[in-house]
Amino acid sequence: MNPEISRRCFAAGLPVAALAVQGAAFAAPGNAAPTAREVIGRLHGQLRAEGITVLPEGKTADKFVAGNPDLPVRGIATTFMSTFDTLRRANEAGLSLIISHEPTFWHHQDSVEGLAGDPTYELKKRYAEENGLTIWRFHDHWHMRKPDPILSAFMRKLGLDADSFDDTVELPSMRLGDLVRKVQTALDTPNVRFWGDPDRMVQRMRVSGHLLRQIAGQNADVFLWLEPKEFNTFEYFRDAGELGVDRCIIGTTHELVEEWGMLAPCADWVRALVPEVPVKPLRTAELYWTV
What pTM does this model have? Predict the structure, then answer.
């Protein structure tokens, strides 16, 4: 989809142009490639310049989670999640710093407690170390930017405009089944589930995710939900329908909502601050197969 450029979208692009001037100051002739720690220092400096308080480690999920941050960076990958496949592709492309929105070690805070000796953990960690890869988690502070680049990129994929996950989006009135097909096409995936009458007309949509309590008191007739939990979220909507509450749900995987903001938006932002090395966005492969 190709939505018209709104004033908000245009304004969101302005900082990248400004960053190019700041980044040039770091790239004087003869400068050696920065270390991963120095790269993250530049990112933190820009976040502060945007009015964002950089939280200390222990107060945020954002941190180095693997590798040696004092190694020079050969190149940078930005990605939704540092899966093993993503690490392998980054390494093959000569990108040694992986900036990952979601966990590397399957826990929101990337805690590795209890994982010592687990073969999946040990093999993944060893691959990063033996290939000189450093992984930095970039979740909380990326969401703190205004507008939220994760949500903005997702809404652009859908041809919509919204400022936050708290917005209810007004749609042209359409059948629920047609909206599901539009979501599938926009996100280029077959992995979309829904509950509700496909012929039911919908017009007010809210993007939500993770927590069922986010739905409380919200005036929407369709909820586009990232990573819905089977044991409660879909069951809530089933009960709602059987009780005559006029609501329905469209469910997607987590990455189909959030990865778009870690591709071009994040790569462009980082590239302007770190012009000495290549910066490339890497897609995360879809989690599920459809048979």
Answer: 0.85
